[in-house]
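Sequence design from tokenized structure. All designs in this work follow the same two-part layout: the structure record, then the generated sequence. An example of the structure record is given first.
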């Protein structure tokens, strides 16, 4: 696999940064993806903020800190529903997400909730841009397990 650069919000405590790095690397290695990101939910529970990402492309560190409201985009809907979403192909052609604006040509993407005791703490996102194989339910179960471990470590 091609090397990816890890970017993590420097304002996070060292322990949280270590958990984010673990999750980003483990998800990419276990599932096989071109990139991953982690977004954490605000204390009020209505805003997701990107706190970490692993990417092949350069210059994406500026994405750290980007926020999405609960219910917006795929990751915001995952927070709303509490269910992992897999999008293969154009997100705008998926009937569940037809109104979602696409920012990148992603062949396959997945968002899984970081859940602890029924409470959602954030979202793990995975994407395949160069890889042709679509993400699948088996890989979703792996992402959910990794997200659950990370959520437990964050507690």
């Amino acid at each position: 696999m091609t090397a990816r650069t890890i970017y993590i919000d420097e304002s996070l405590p060292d322990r949280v940064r270590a958990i984010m790095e673990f999750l980003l690397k483990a998800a990419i290695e276990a599932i096989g993806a071109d990139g991953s990101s982690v977004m954490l939910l605000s204390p009020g529970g209505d805003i997701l903020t990107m706190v970490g990402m692993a990417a092949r492309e350069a210059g994406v560190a500026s994405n750290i800190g980007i926020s999405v409201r609960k219910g917006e985009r795929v990751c915001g809907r995952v927070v709303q529903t509490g269910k992992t979403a897999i999008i293969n192909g154009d997100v705008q052609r998926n009937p569940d997400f037809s109104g979602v604006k696409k920012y990148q040509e992603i062949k396959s993407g997945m968002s899984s909730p970081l859940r602890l005791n029924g409470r959602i703490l954030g979202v793990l996102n995975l994407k395949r841009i160069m890889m042709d194989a679509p993400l699948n339910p088996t890989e979703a179960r792996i992402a959910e397990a990794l997200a659950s471990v990370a959520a437990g470590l964050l507690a």
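The domain at 5-154 is CATH 3.30.450.40 (Beta-Lactamase). We note this feature because it recurs in several other targets discussed in the main text.
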